[in-house]
Amino acid sequence: MYACCQLWRVWGYLMMDLFAAQVNYRIPNFVSSFQDPAAIATDVFLYNYDNQDLYAFPSLPPIRKVLNSFGHPETQDSSR
User: How many Å separate Cα 31 from the centre of its chain?
Assistant: First the structure.
């Protein structure tokens, strides 16, 4: 957590923690992958996060989906 705080002091604080839970969030506003009473939403891929500074640290399986959702052409799945 110390490293996060140091970076946020330099670059500014973020508004939303994606892929978090009540036991591991870094920012009080977080979106969880499962039902969590403290989360502001469930399923990050359905949440509208336009114009927000976000913290995202997904587990390994959804990384490609995360990058695709941000529209990076170099990460598009070529098997489709």
Answer: 7
